Amino acid sequence: MARVISLFFLSMALMLSCSQEKEAEATFSFNLKQLSDKDYPDNPDIGFRSGDYGELDLKFGQVVKSDTGFDLIVVSNSGADTIAFHSLVIEEFIPTIPKYVQGKEYLEHISLINQEWNRNQVKFSKGQFYTTYERIVRADIARNCLNSYLWEMILYSEEDGKALPYDHVWFNFPGELYRELFEEKNGVPFSNYRKPLENWIDPESKFIDLNSFRSVEMELEVSFSDHSDKMYPVSGERLRKLKEIISPSEFQTMRELQSDSTSFATFSPPGIYDRTDPRLTELGRIFKLDSAFVNRIKSRNNDQALIEIGMIFSDKADRTKTKLILGGLDPDLFPSLKEDEANMGWKTSMGIGNHSFYESYDEQRNKKTLSSPYYGLLLDESDKWLDSHKVGIDGPLIHLDAHDKQKLNIWLLSFERHALVGHYVIKLQDSLNL
């Protein structure tokens, strides 16, 4: 009898040990890093943040698997204070190959590269996270644009009716979990793309067949005008980041930024702007807008009726041609704004199936990369892919004219969205209704 009891307790101990081991395998830990103004002098939030910015002492974090998703939890050094995101759908932060480019090796590469190397910052409002810090009214999680694992968390408090940055921490998302999620989502080994996702490697410039993304149903009749000889509205993010423009040191129009001599503060690990390392551009490519077109299209990803905008530029010497193609666009998402409200326009990054730079948690969950019809590409005169990062264009910002719904305003966001480097109005003779 004693032997039976002994075996029973041994069995229970082994079961408990296995259970604890399984639980440990489902928990991924990381450390948090905070940066002082001395550490990060080019922080664009300086002058635009809470008076008590940086007073928290967040040190540690964990991602824990659960039956309903993932729990992401960060705690203070003392362990007394917590911020937690429960049942988090974290998979949508992971780069995903859209359905319509699956099996097309080069397009798979370009889609994954541009998703990982463009920012996706997601806003969580009250009720979508838990915290012991009463002052926190909003918490953002950002997968920044440097490599597979560099992420950030920005916390906000309310002052004078505005949500202002209250603290900012940087961390390495657990690599093992990232790679596991990548393979689950894409059905391909992470090792196939590990090198360019972990450390930027310039992709080859190859031919892009736009018919991979859509079929053209109709070309709309349009006229266009270039408004780049004006200054863009310096507000919101553009106001905070004005100091990140290195060259020219002074300018009055966007045209003055359309030069290969334009440079910006670069973005460096763990996710900070650095004016001591100027990022050069090829913005001279967009000096002159030669032509523009708008197509009604049908997406090959979901058969949705959408539009495609095309713009062809030449440089100042009229030698180099550059095409900007923006497709899979739903005009119902474009707000109607005045030009001085442009910074509130619809925006997203260059790439294939990308999420926006900034979006709410609900928006991120509802816009799946796998089925996204969006594509934004820079091409040369032979329709070969151009690296938008090297050119210095992060993506489009689009809105309808406040008084004329057939006028499309297209602004171009610079590298890291420090500035707007072009403004164009396309007038359609036909309605955009699809």
Structure report:
- This protein is α+β, with helices and mostly antiparallel strands and 434 residues long.
- The protein folds into two domains: 177 residues, no CATH class; 216 residues, no CATH class.
- The protein is built from seven helices and 26 strands.
- The protein has a ten-stranded mixed beta sheet.
- A hairpin with a 5-residue loop joins strand 24 and strand 25.
- It is globular and about 65 Å long.
- 39% of the residues are buried.
Write the layout of secondary structure elements.
Layout: H1 2-25, E1 27-33, E2 58-66, E3 69-76, E4 82-88, H2 105-116, E5 120-125, E6 130-131, E7 136-143, E8 150-159, E9 162-172, H3 175-186, H4 194-198, E10 214-220, E11 222-226, H5 237-240, E12 245-247, E13 263-268, E14 272-280, E15 288-299, E16 305-314, E17 321-329, E18 336-337, E19 346-347, E20 351-352, E21 358-360, H6 361-366, E22 375-380, E23 385-386, H7 388-391, E24 393-401, E25 407-414, E26 420-428
Parallel strand pairs: 5-21, 18-24
Antiparallel strand pairs: 1-2, 1-9, 2-3, 3-4, 4-6, 5-7, 7-8, 8-9, 10-15, 11-26, 12-13, 13-14, 15-16, 16-17, 17-22, 19-24, 20-22, 22-23, 24-25, 25-26
Which key phrases capture this entry?
434 residues, seven-stranded antiparallel sheet
Uncertain runs with pLDDT below 50, 5 residues or more? 1-25
Structural class: alpha+beta
* Principal-axis shape: globular
In percent terms, what proportion of residues is strand? 35-45%
| CA gyration radius, whole angstroms | 24 Å
Q: Please, how many domains?
A: 2
Largest sheet: 10 strands, mixed
User: What is the number of beta strands?
Assistant: 26
The separation of the N and C termini measures: 79 Å
| Lateral arrangement of strands in the main beta sheet | 6-4-3-2-1-9-8-7-5-21
- The average pLDDT is 92
Range of helix content? 10-25%
Instruction: Count the DSSP helices.
Output: 7
